[in-house]
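worker-3 :: picked Armadillo repeat-containing domain-containing protein
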Amino acid sequence: MFNGAVPQKDPDESNPEWRITVNPAAELVGSPRLRALIDRLYHHQKLLTDFDAKQILSALQCMDPTAELLLPLLTVLSNATAYPSNQLLMREFRLTNRVVEMLPDSKHWPRSTRVILLQCIANMAVSSDNMEVMKLALNHIVSRLTSEDEMEVVVAMQALTNLSINIRKEQIPKFVPVIPHCLNRLWVRGEVNLNALRLLVNLSCCPDMVPYLLGNKSVSGLLRILDTDREEVLIRAVTWILCTTSAVDALNLTYDRIAEHNLDPFHNPSHTLYFSIYGPKGREELETQARHLLNHANKDVASKSARLLETLANVPPFPTAGSHLNRL
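worker-3 :: tokens ->
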């Protein structure tokens, strides 16, 4: 048997078939072929093919973050997520994985590219079949809530809303840091922030999240969210308070049960969300608002307000100062 090394000879420049491309994807990036692919998918074609998915993956694996074609390529991918068959194809060809893998390094990217990558992940998170892959991105998405760029925060909230449809018990610690950001952004320039409210609804739909939620610092004028002419806000506001109250009833939550989650430095109960909703003044205001909404033209609002009043009746009154003396 011959074990000697075969001598390597230089490619014959006159024979192009000799040429070997070390990284075929590098040839694709920035090429007219990639531009044509982006143009076709952006303007003329809704559904990806296997070949399209392979080409996009090859480009994403080697493309520089500053490359001019990265932004339109991610935009095409983000738009393509609107179709379930595309989501399936992206998963099969590991495009979903690749997009998630790009997230940690993207915080140093140009702003537009950074935001569209986050939007792509938010859209991919719509598919419940992507949750196993998406959970790897959770910590990085939460960290974007502290961004100084408002658009980045908004898209991060959208992504977290899609990821919080069904919060598993082991995921709760990852979602807990999200709560103060939502509450701090609930009012923006005198208007209810719908993005924050949507996320709060999902968080409150997980009963085990509710003690953490109620232990957070409250928002000034919290229950004014029920006093609005915007139905899209009102239906979510009623849903949020109803889900929270249902969890308080089901888990028999009193202040004593949520005290350990009180984030106030002096553990003052009156600074908590729990006190704002179920303390004497808050509860009275909530009952008044709910009774008023029983006659609302929107049947969903009226029905949920009725359920809220029924559930609220099961929640014990907040102990007033000196109430312990009555038991002596």
